Amino acid sequence: MFSQTVEYALRAVVHLAFNATESQTTEQIARATKVPQAYLSKVLQSLVAAGVVKSQRGIGGGMSLVKKPRELTILEVVNAVDPIQRIKTCPLRVGLARRAVVSAAPPGGQGAGAGRGRLPRDDAARGDRRTERECAAV
Predict the structure, then answer these.
(1) What is the pLDDT of residues 15-46, one digit of tens each?
(2) Domain range list for the chain
(3) Which candidate, 67, 66, 22, places its Cα nearest to that of 48?
(4) What share of the chain is helix, strand, coil (3-state, %, to 5)?
């Protein structure tokens, strides 16, 4: 789901794309997109800061797209106003904790823990190596 801010930004960018030959005022964009003008102003500021839209003051000024509409992606617009959160830690680290429990069993899963629901050491270690490799790639 997109936030209300993203939806408003997308509406504004689509409007600017359809009117790419001339600048549009915030009032014109708000009226055409049915977005509250005060809120749209803040959205457009974010789009300007991200380099998606440019603004020009004065007579004949207004907002316009920096790129041609075909060169602009939805992701650029989304990230300009409500950046998608990136994964900063590996969610697969859970497997590393499992290795500590499993490797406490004697080699090959024989002995004290064998047959009591523990995985054989070789299987667990192979899975954990894969997990470490996947995490390193993140």
Answers:
(1) 999 998 899 999 999 999 999 999 999 999 99
(2) 4-81, 91-137
(3) 66
(4) 55, 5, 35
Paired tokens of 105: 């069993």
Q: Can you tell me the distance from the alpha carbon of 132 to that of 138, in angstroms, rounded to the nearest whole number?
A: 10
Taking the chain, what is the end-to-end CA distance rounded to the nearest angstrom? 25
Q: What pTM did the predictor assign?
A: 0.62
Q: Which two tokens stand for residue 138?
A: 């993140």
Domain 4-81 is of which CATH architecture?
Answer: Orthogonal Bundle (1.10)
Task: Supply 67's token pair.
Answer: 């790129």
CB-based contacts of 8, cutoff 8 Å, min separation 6:
33, 35, 39, 40, 43
